[in-house]
Amino acid sequence: MQTVLISELKPFLDALAEEMDLYVPKKSGEHYVYNRYDSSANVQIEFNNIRTCMPVKEFLFPLRELAAVYPQPIEPKEIRPFAVFGLKYCDLRSIEVLDRVFAEDEFEDLLYVTRRKNMFIISSDCSEPAESCFCDVLGGKPFAQAGFDLNVSQVKNQYIIETGSQRGEEFIEKHSSLFTETTEAILADRDKNRIETQNQLEQNNTNLKFDVPVNEMVEKTQDSDVYDEEAKTCVECQGCTRVCPTCHCFYLYDTKQEDYFTKMKMWDSCMRIAYAEVAGGTNPRKALGNRLRHRFMHKFSYFFERYGIDMCVGCGRCVDGEAGDVDIRRVLKRLSEELKGKDNRRAETAK
Prior knowledge:
Blueprint: E1 3-6, H1 10-19, E2 21-28, E3 31-36, H2 57-60, E4 64-70, E5 82-87, H3 89-102, H4 110-117, E6 119-124, E7 150-155, E8 158-163, H5 166-174, E9 180-181, H6 184-204, H7 214-220, H8 226-231, H9 239-243, E10 250-256, E11 261-267, H10 288-307, H11 317-321, H12 328-350
Parallel strand pairs: 2-5, 5-6, 6-7
Antiparallel strand pairs: 1-8, 1-9, 2-3, 4-11, 7-8, 10-11
């Protein structure tokens, strides 16, 4: 692992764009979205101080894609190498979740795996976390620790670039003329910025400290009335699962063309009323509260039991994208208080 320094981002991005398609953040209103980078365009390069509103899963697991054609199969569309700049550590952790699902042994999804292998990841430090961010509650940090090819940290008017993979090392070596050496003073400034942002996050989320691990807390309160009560404010927009970087439910449907059929793959949502409906019309999760309960159990219990990691990375996108008033943080806090009350009553009874 090595660190180098560059004073402007454009030469760095131009070099990336020469080798692969490049996507960079662009401010849209109060949020950032991803746009294709055009090195010939005279536009300002934006360094996003926070994660984009669109989840990284859109690059690896598209909203809608062709999965199969029959009776005669077709060759899958070629997936060109591409780079995504400005991903945050919550994004990298969400990719880890998707890898567990779509790249798991005999269940490997070829379309996902092909995109994943062709993806070059350039992460960057957070400097101004939103009120909705709570990654620190779930073990996250405002700077990447693993899972990147290159990471960029802004220090005053310069940028520290750190390598995190062999591909990252090779890129830096190939374009060594663009960079200069870092100094201990600049690295110290970067570390200071990271500590300050981490402290800000922790201060924002002081009311989200739990006595037990989140997965244990959710599992022990799965019969709570909190889900039914909180579901009253849900408008069933499914926005929470659409913007979530780790939600990966999808359905397959067939369409008929002139002389062949296609099987399409499209995002689904466990918050949709017909999601759990089976043949004959029976629906074990017809009630909205049951769907909300299932979403939390999947995020914090089922997935953890199978893979050993939470399926929530605390990015807060669901909080920002919620059209109703279901706040994942408030639900967790209420569950924590309920569990604490149960434990206190047991302690009193045992005396």
